[in-house]
């Protein structure tokens, strides 16, 4: 996969030199190209921003600079253009999997109050353009959001993860415990600072281990992600699950309790 990133702070992307993504780049699985947006600013001050039409606080990134940058980087092809913004569509595991199928992604990192909206309008007729949010909070620019997306997408590429099972076992991945977050995990030693590993995990009883893990996943989902718990498909719940949810004072819809 080819991955281009345009930013006024390409130094933000130093983490892409290490770990999983760094190794994938060394092997040629990932071809990451960083671009300094200011290279396409022509005035002596390398200006990339201007005041917003209609007034208001802050500055807006100039369309001419972005236009030249994207024309150059996308020359000869049609990458999928991803623009991080808190007003975008939510980034989730499903979108990560979709992006992992693409041969070429181009990330455009805004700063200040964002990029003049005509840039997204212009390229929408030439390539797939998505404005994407990684969560409901404000960042100073798109760079950190792009790091998040590149890691989420990069680890899904064939051969990037050591253990091929790891990618499908995750919370939120199809094939994992559907719509439940993962429970707690433990390793040696069996007692650490007085905290014991739950005995069931040392029992060697695979059936009891699986049941316990599912219980813990349900407890955590109810506690930390009540909206996911509320959306659980009753078809995926057995009697034990329903009894546990009842104990947790979690109210199922009446039709879920039939049979
Ligand atoms: C800020 C100019 O979803 C969280 C995000 C916050 C944020 C993003 S994504 N992009 C920008 C930005 O600020 O470009």
From TrEMBL:
Residues 1-229 form the tRNA methyltransferase TRMD/TRM10-type domain. This is tRNA (guanine-N(1)-)-methyltransferase. It is found in: Cytoplasm. One of its GO terms (cellular component) is cytosol. Belongs to the RNA methyltransferase TrmD family. Keywords: Cytoplasm, Methyltransferase, S-adenosyl-L-methionine, Transferase, tRNA processing. It catalyses: guanosine(37) in tRNA + S-adenosyl-L-methionine = N(1)-methylguanosine(37) in tRNA + S-adenosyl-L-homocysteine + H(+). Homodimer. Specifically methylates guanosine-37 in various tRNAs. One of its GO terms (molecular function) is tRNA (guanine(37)-N1)-methyltransferase activity. GO terms for biological process: tRNA N1-guanine methylation. Its main location: cytoplasm. InterPro entries: Alpha/beta_knot_MTases, tRNA_m1G_MeTrfase_C_sf, tRNA_m1G_MeTrfase_TrmD, tRNA_m1G_MTases_N, tRNA_MeTrfase_TRMD/TRM10. S-adenosyl-L-methionine binds at residues 110, 134-139. Its EC number is 2.1.1.228. HAMAP family: TrmD (MF_00605). PANTHER family: TRNA (GUANINE-N(1)-)-METHYLTRANSFERASE.
